[in-house]
Amino acid sequence: MKIAVLPGDGIGTEIVDQAVRVLKAMDLKFEMEFAPVGGTAYESHGHPLPESTLKLAQNCDAILFGAVGDWKYDQLERQFRPEQAILGLRKHLGLFANFRPAICYEELVGASSLKPELISGLDILIIRELTGDIYFGQPRGRRIAVDGHFPGAEEAFDTMRYSKPEIERIAHVAFQAARKRSKKVTSVDKANVLETFQFWKDVVTEVHAQYPDVELDHMYVDNAAMQLVRAPKKLDVVVTGNMFGDILSDEAAMLTGSIGMLPSASLNDKQVGLYEPSHGSAPDIAGKGVANPLATILSAAMMLRFSLNQAEAALRIESAVKKVLASGLRTPDIWSVGTQKVGTKEMGDAVVAALAVQ
Ligand code: IPM
Ligand code: MG
């Protein structure tokens, strides 16, 4: 088994370092190989996703990813911007199924901006389609308008599209995931306005016929955004397209108190996966040693479970993280009065120590 480790930009290096330490402390049999990605790779190789990094990723069983992006690259031509690295990896590896759990740890109920009773015990799984939709749809670009409200004016356009097999496979992923949970799927769409999402709804409904034991309901995306802050515990598995999933998963993450706690997995049909924290590169705090490494550590746990067939080791990491939270240690993003503020490395130390006493 081989893992590609791609720390990337901003806080990526610091948080991935801690996850790697945790993995090493587990004494499991796998190799790890590091490679540059994002702005860092643009600096060293002239491209955010160099051939060598892509090759490595394609030849591994799993990828542990930090984060990419920095405002200083905002002026670059789009193909050279750091974000293209993650989009390229998703596309080239066919990572169409993105799992974004939003779990509220009991110790962190107070860190949420929502009332404790609304989020205590929250456990939502957002399943976001990751290789289709307006993110990848062609054509796209800029041109002079020939119609619309201002013919002759400059305009920009993207294409929202989904093929039937793309919707079918993500629907299967969602129904199968629901079978292991509360057997309830909410499919989020905008069928009242968009042709693409009327089709989405029709196809999800069709696939549902194969899962009579799972309950399916449909929700418009604007309503879903509202329900997430009104009564989030009514949701369990949420399946949606790439664009809506991007937005809703950030919203769901924040319900739990901190986006610094949430791991994610992006899988293809061979269970090869890319594992990354749900948060970004946070250039404002990079290098300060204050970033929360727990989302990345928990992503490493997801990697052990989904791609490396080590469910027991995954549980060990997850319970070590719970123990550390219970002991009162907090990075600044999840700190509250009465708890002890620690930095990135101290948090990593604590998880490693908690693993040792299990
Ligand atoms: C995410 C991020 C990415 C996305 C960006 C960095 C391209 O926001 O993983 O949610 O939009 O998918
Ligand atoms: Mg996002």
What would your notes on this structure say?
- The protein is of the alpha/beta class and 358 residues long.
- The chain has two domains: 1-95 and 268-358, Isopropylmalate Dehydrogenase; 97-267, Isopropylmalate Dehydrogenase.
- Helix content is 39%, strand content 19%.
- It has twelve helices and 14 strands.
- The chain has helices spanning 12-25, 39-45, 51-58, 83-93, 116-119, 164-179, 195-208, 221-230, 242-255, 294-306, 311-326, 344-356; strands at 2-8, 31-34, 62-67, 97-103, 123-129, 141-144, 154-157, 184-189, 215-220, 237-240, 263-267, 273-277, 329-330, 340-341.
- It has a ten-stranded mixed beta sheet, sandwiched between helices. Strands 6-7 form a two-stranded antiparallel sheet. The protein has a two-stranded parallel sheet with strand order 13-14.
- Helix 6 (164-179) crosses helix 7 and helix 8 (221-230) packs parallel to helix 9.
- The longest helix is centred in the middle third of the chain and has 16 residues, at 164-179.
- The radius of gyration is 20 Å and the shape is globular.
- 47% of the residues are buried.
- It binds 3-isopropylmalic acid and magnesium ion.
- Magnesium ion binds next to helix 9.
